[in-house]
Amino acid sequence: MKIIRSTSVILLIIFLAIKGYGNDAHELWLKKQPAKSVVISSNNKSVIVNNAIEALKNGWQGENNARLKLRIVKDKAINNDGFKLDNNQIKANTPSGILYGVYELLRRQQTGENTNSILSNPSYQNRILNHWDNLDGSVERGYAGNSIFWRGEKDLAVTANDLELWKQYAIANASIGINGSAINNVNASPKMLSSAVLQRVKSIADVLRPFGIKTYLSVNFASPAVLGGLKTSDPLNADVIKWWKAKADEIYKLVPDFGGFLVKANSEGEPGPQDFGRNHADGANMMADILKPYGGIVMWRAFVYSPSNKDRALQAYLEFMPFDGKFRDNVIIQVKNGPIDFQPREPFSALFGAMKKTSVMPEFQITQEYLGHSNQLAFLAPMWEETLNSDTYQNGEGSTVAKVTNGSIYNQKYTAIAGVANIGLDSNWCGYNFAQANWYAYGRLAWNDKLKSSQIADEWLKLTFKSEKENADNWTVGFLEPVKKMMLESREAVVNYSMPLGLHHIFAAHHHYGPGPWWAPKNARPDWTPPYYHQADSTGLGFNRTKTGSNAVSQYHEPLTSQLNNAATTPEIYLLWFHHLSWDYKTKSGRKLWDELCYSYDKGVNQVRDFQKTWDKIENYVDSTSFVEMQKLLKHQAFDAKVYSDACVMYFQQFSKRPIPFELERPVYNIEFLQSIDPRLIYQEGGNFNTSKILNSKH
Ligand code: BDP
């Protein structure tokens, strides 16, 4: 026995070394400073509290030999998994609350913040990561390697490496307050519910539970027929209901605290109740009734659109509003932040603030599907902050997206928020080191939706890069401030060089990387082609969603409807989202629309070049691996930004027939060239053209 155990430990160490798991990046924001000693007393002995104690012992940075009390109490000021931090005491109503309090304390010790008189309650009850991981190990829209959960349906056995990695994952999530994981793709294989796969689900749940994390599954609506062999998957059919009931029983036997189902139904070809003449409420409620006795929830996605609709932005609202009040209280409608699809910038979806009798939860995308995959720096907290703080005016001024979803205006029984994870098997988890900041930021905002992006960036940089060796003042001025500025600007830079002024969905097809404003093959669904969205013609640019156009503005509450209906009162960041405007339309800068567009693209390119300058200056503050990685990434991004900008400016110029303002940098690529290649493949490390790939690429 002993020999076997020590061999497997050695193998694990070798494996971790090969995978690079010993390196700093794998430790995320949890890099350990040598811990000081601490004496802990606790009135609770649960596994979760024991994990909290272990975290404290490993990370304590307070006074040496300090005494710390962990107390489970009954305190009405503390909600859900909240906690109080006071004079070396952490109080919470639940073991998870203790765990979150411990991580808050450890974080504050490292960032040098006050650790007394703190009451912290989570904004959302359920703070969930959605993994778009497939059973075969691939990750849809994942740019950080294969799945940490799945390797294929023939490889379901759980290894020591799996257990170790899932544990590290669980700790990272717990440290930022995430308490749920939906561990497979929303485009769900029915096989996910097979008994063999559920055994592995149980193993995953067993590792996550001691860190306060519930496991959820995405389910395929046609599972009763496809997996169960029934004739139908009609949600009102008695056999179908029986099948789901038996499945739920099987799951809860294995995973007693199973969180519930996430469902993508009647969306992008996925099956759903409409296939059987039923509606979203029929489908969601059937599942909700089955999960209710177990305390499970159904997260039913509102990401629906069809080729026939004249404006894709309208459809989710049109499909869901009629069912307001018809959903069970354990159904939550999961709504992407924007009405179209995780674009670099969208106004908030009108479904927030629309349904008054139905719980709605925001869905953000942490993985950078439309923001440069893992080749471009885009710190996404500012984007999420923008959505959460957008005023829906549903219940008068101040009814922000955060407030209408987090239970502070309506007394929803369940509140939740989801983020599509950017996590994979890469040793740095997220594809590039700074992408870890997006995982971190999502967790922090899900816990506290009032946090500012700047604070989150500040925390993350301190936790990730601050070295004890550095003089604190030097470090702040030399590293923290400039790098934070770069992070905070980075998403706006992506918007500027790819889709400024409210433009959206003008990326290259399918893989969603790089520019494709021209992409519109004859047989393509129009609502998948960029010209459908930008509507460029000789008269101007933009999608008319005003009352004279698709009238999407009417899905918002006043005063927004009137504001957005009028170009002059529409925030310029959303201008071409709501308006088709003449090339000569005068923008707030005083420039004409065409010139302003060119200026925006140019600005984006220059922002990235400034990031390069910023980064080169901080070389002495980071380890050489991190330095070189980011330097390469920014070089790649500068290349991509110029490609994007040139492609869009030259493409739109064919319609505007106006010169690029003479003071701006000229395009350096030919549009014919850019139209002929696959933008993912033209960059070669070092900044050269990847000639072999260009020659082979079909775009
Ligand atoms: C789109 C993605 C696609 C997802 C879909 C979704 O391109 O891979 O399946 O969203 O959210 O943006 O369901």
SSE order and pairing:
Elements: H1 2-18, E1 38-42, H2 47-59, E2 66-72, E3 83-86, E4 89-92, H3 95-111, E5 118-120, E6 126-130, H4 160-175, E7 180-182, H5 195-208, E8 214-219, H6 223-226, H7 238-254, E9 260-263, H8 280-291, E10 297-301, H9 315-320, E11 331-336, E12 359-365, H10 381-388, H11 401-405, E13 416-420, H12 436-447, H13 453-465, H14 472-498, H15 530-534, E14 540-541, H16 560-565, H17 575-578, E15 581-582, H18 593-617, H19 624-656, H20 671-676, E16 683-684, E17 688-689, H21 691-696
Parallel strand pairs: 1-2, 2-4, 6-7, 6-13, 7-8, 8-9, 9-10, 10-11, 11-12, 12-13
Antiparallel strand pairs: 3-4, 3-5, 14-15, 16-17
Helix pairs in contact: 2-3, 4-5, 7-8, 12-13, 13-14, 14-18, 18-19
The structure holds beta-D-glucopyranuronic acid.
Protein name: Alpha-glucuronidase
Organism: Pedobacter alpinus
Keywords: Hydrolase
Question: What features would you highlight for this structure?
Answer:
alpha/beta; Chitobiase, domain 2; 3 domains; Alpha-d-glucuronidase, C-terminal Domain; eight-stranded parallel barrel; 38% helix; 699 residues; binds beta-D-glucopyranuronic acid; 10% strand; TIM Barrel; 21 helices; single chain
Structure overview:
This protein starts with a helix and ends with a helix. Helices cover 38% and strands 10% of the residues. The strands form 4 sheets. It has an 8-stranded parallel β-barrel. Strands 1-2-4-3-5 form a 5-stranded mixed β-sheet, with helices on one face. A two-stranded antiparallel ribbon has the order 14-15. It is of the alpha/beta class. It is built from 21 helices and 17 strands. The protein binds beta-D-glucopyranuronic acid (BDP).
